[in-house]
Amino acid sequence: MNEIFLDQRSCQSCPIRHRAVCSKCEPDELQMLDRIKYYRHYDPGQPVVWAGDEMDFVASVVAGIATLSQTLEDGRTQMVGLLLPSDFLGRPGRVTAPYDVTATSALTLCCFRRKPFEKMLVETPSISQRLLEMTLDELDAARQWMLILGRKTAREKIASLLTIIAQREAALQRRAPTNGSSFELPLTREAMADYLGLTLETVSRQISALKRAGIIELEGKRFVTVPDFAALMDETGDDSDGGLPV
Amino acid sequence: MNEIFLDQRSCQSCPIRHRAVCSKCEPDELQMLDRIKYYRHYDPGQPVVWAGDEMDFVASVVAGIATLSQTLEDGRTQMVGLLLPSDFLGRPGRVTAPYDVTATSALTLCCFRRKPFEKMLVETPSISQRLLEMTLDELDAARQWMLILGRKTAREKIASLLTIIAQREAALQRRAPTNGSSFELPLTREAMADYLGLTLETVSRQISALKRAGIIELEGKRFVTVPDFAALMDETGDDSDGGLPV
DNA sequence: TTCCGCTCTTGATCAGGATCAAGGCGGCTC
DNA sequence: GAGCCGCCTTGATCCTGATCAAGAGCGGAA
């Protein structure tokens, strides 16, 4: 893990900078951010922080993917969050991490030291309002996952996960998912299972089933093409109006 | 549903008032709140708002219990939130409700008209910071539920729900749950099933099983006594360190 | 009082996904 | 190339919780 301090213009995808601070273009806020901000890089599979550890920073994801997960006594684990670029990690006011955070691909975090960040939060209402908005979006996503975990069949769960990944990948490029669009699954079968509350065997079987049904096409094990996006949505069991705004 | 406008001191349990505004004791903020604030009462079982409906207010729960739930195409429903007194309902900036909200007991909401509330939010950073804190707590609770829904057995789910209800009831009275403490289940078996991703038959069976095992005692169908709180916690499957801070 | 309706309990059977097990496919190092 | 390892697929069997079904308990209304 490396720490690289940033010059003033180098962080392109950080939502704090771009959506909250830059929108105001207050020069001294920018300078203050630059004094407390730095990058960290993690290799695939590397833990970022374990639940219960002290976290002296908050961060936003610049590149790569991280997962949040929780574990029961006997080792059963459940993933509870998926952090893609522009997502925020850490919580103002909380010192210990509540979840295990793991890099599932090469991960770059744009970090802010906790104390100055909290000070900035108090002094810059636009940032805490932006943070509130992002947190509310995360809460909606978590509740959508509760529906998936509690009430959907294995097949519906897989279709839902594929839909969500396709939508988020598309959203990063500021477009809607289209027929024929492809993407790379950022998760192993096991990680998908941890996310969906299934076993990896069931995940594998259901992906094969969706492939056999022509809902998706697979190139290798990870590269997915969706010939008809509406057909995939039909498999999710969701109300056809598309559910929550994402 | 009645609307009753409030005088300046009548809302005792509203977190906005007490934790954000009153702590500062800014007289004009208080007055502004009083101009935009009013009560609504709902009978048990009455819907507060349906998903997709326009919501012209945000509110905090003063008394009673409300549930948030989502429904799939074919009618399967999943509860995704449980609102107890002091919890917040509604989201600044969002006009349509994302979930069905239902009163499960006689419910009193302390409402704020949306527009003035949002104006106040911009002008009063302490409130949006308080709201951020509450939202982060809700997010943690939602993620704890994801673990329950995804990885726990029926028996562990029931034990977890009882634990959570006991803890929240105790927290409202600012104390920790103790051995021998009792509480009234605020939910029907069906509502518990909707919360846990089970059927009502399974809920009933598991409650009977916990009773037979001496983990809980039942008086009637709703009144629960926990002779040994640690024994109940043991049934949840959670790590013994108690999980998330509540 | 009787009847009705709602909630809950319990039993019998079924099925979806877990578990156990074996093997395939790349990619890697030696 | 051979061997190994991580990831994935597929098959056989098992088990937990769903489903279908019947009836108990209880409160409210006529």
UniProtKB/TrEMBL annotation, chains A, B:
GO cellular component, one term: cytosol
CDD domains listed in its UniProt record: CAP_ED, HTH_CRP
InterPro entries according to UniProt: cNMP-bd_dom, cNMP-bd_dom_sf, Env_Response_Regulators, HTH_CRP, RmlC-like_jellyroll, Tscrpt_reg_HTH_Crp-type_CS, WH-like_DNA-bd_sf, WH_DNA-bd_sf
GO function term, MF aspect, one: DNA binding
Gene3D superfamilies for this protein: Jelly Rolls, Winged helix-like DNA-binding domain superfamily/Winged helix DNA-binding domain
Alphabetical list of SUPFAM superfamilies matching this protein: cAMP-binding domain-like, Winged helix' DNA-binding domain
Superkingdom of origin: Bacteria
Record domain HTH crp-type: where: 152-230
Key words, A-Z: DNA-binding, Transcription, Transcription regulation
Domain Cyclic nucleotide-binding: 21-138
One Pfam family named in its UniProt record: HTH_Crp_2
NCBIfam families: TransRegFnrLRhodb (NF045989)
The protein, known as: Crp/Fnr family transcriptional regulator
Natural source organism: Psychromarinibacter sediminicola
